[in-house]
Amino acid sequence: MLSGSKLKQLRQSMGMSVEDLARAMVPPNLTPDKQQAQMKKLRATVKNWEQNLMRPLPKAEDVASLSRALDTEQQELSVWSATHRYAPMAPRKVRLVTDLIRGRSVQDALDVLKFANKRAAVMVDKVLRSAIANADEQEADIEELYVCEARVDEGGVRQGTRRWRPKDRGRAVPFTRLASHIRISVDLE
User: Fold this and answer.
1) Residue 56: cis peptide before it, omega within 30 degrees of 0
2) Which residues of the chain carry a pLDDT beneath 50?
3) What pLDDT is stored for residue 26 in this prediction?
């Protein structure tokens, strides 16, 4: 997936403006009026990508044209991520584990998760291994990967977990079980 911060940093280091980058991405075989319309659309798209909005979602051809325009490899613009949506555990418990691996090298993070005495470590380990596999599929050097983002968001109340607990004097108190969204991204050092 395209990294907006890397794109902005590379563009600024090359001394290019968003206008120049959009002009370099426009295909040359279009008529001048279509080139203008395409350039206007690409300018807004590049601005969105640099702010990590990812609207529209960048395709492989877009990343290839960006790397050609910036004269870099596609891996220098990419970040590989994996998610586990609606993981059956409270976000507070999973955040304890993700805080342990954030910013570490991939091998170090796998070792920490292997010996972490938390139930959430198994789920986070699976998501991290999936992100590593995504990077390996794009032929990234696995030895140089590190965890650049480890985020846990609330997934709401898990379906079918609304229960009632009996209390004193015939009362009943509701309790629910929470879910979480685990997102881990890896990047080249």
Assistant:
1) yes
2) none
3) 85
